[in-house]
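> call design_seq(struct)
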């Protein structure tokens, strides 16, 4: 179980509930957790055979699970995680737990569902086969492009035009200055219009007096 680099711990009551659920599983559990050791933490130890992952479902975590063909239990917290999990659940490779509903019973039920129902692993292994079916292995691809760049003296023809752009264009400083100028001119025009209206009102008031 891992919730990524941004979220390293839960409130103590939630962590206790999750640990109690893990303690009821016969499998070993690997949990990346930075908080204090929960009181309900079981004796589960590290194990090389991972049955499923409990993750926050960021993009990197999804590719990791698909590559290894491991089904998931997801806990969406921020950003694109809820959308990612809804797509995975639709493909039958994941289940979702709401942060607000995390307790021992719910967590245990969902994890046991993913562990015991073979369709989750079968569906994920099918995705894994699709993901791995490539004309070249990633390492071979990386080696080819490194050698390609070396053969062609840096492969200047593949470089983007950004290398030739001046720093102010690369960082869009000219665009920001242009937009800022328009905004300042617009504010000055509005201020001048309001001032003219104010003076006109003052003159009418003086005439009426």
């Amino acid at each position: 179980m891992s919730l990524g680099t941004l979220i390293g711990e839960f409130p103590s009551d939630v962590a206790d509930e999750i640990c109690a659920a893990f303690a009821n599983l016969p499998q070993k559990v690997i949990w990346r957790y930075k908080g204090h050791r929960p009181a309900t933490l079981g004796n589960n130890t590290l194990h090389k055979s991972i049955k499923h992952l409990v993750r926050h479902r960021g993009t990197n975590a999804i590719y990791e699970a698909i590559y290894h063909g491991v089904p998931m239990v997801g806990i969406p917290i921020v950003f694109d995680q809820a959308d990612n999990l809804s797509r995975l659940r639709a493909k039958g490779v994941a289940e979702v737990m709401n942060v607000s509903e995390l307790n021992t019973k719910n967590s245990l039920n969902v994890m046991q569902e993913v562990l015991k129902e073979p369709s989750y692993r079968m569906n994920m292994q099918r995705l894994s086969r699709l993901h791995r079916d490539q004309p070249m292995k990633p390492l071979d691809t990386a080696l080819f492009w490194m050698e390609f760049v070396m053969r062609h003296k840096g492969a200047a023809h593949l470089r983007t035009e950004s290398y030739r752009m001046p720093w102010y264009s690369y960082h869009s400083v000219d665009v920001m200055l242009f937009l800022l100028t328009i905004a300042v001119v617009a504010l000055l025009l509005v201020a001048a219009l309001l001032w003219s209206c104010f003076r006109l009102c003052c003159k009418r008031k003086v005439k009426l007096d």
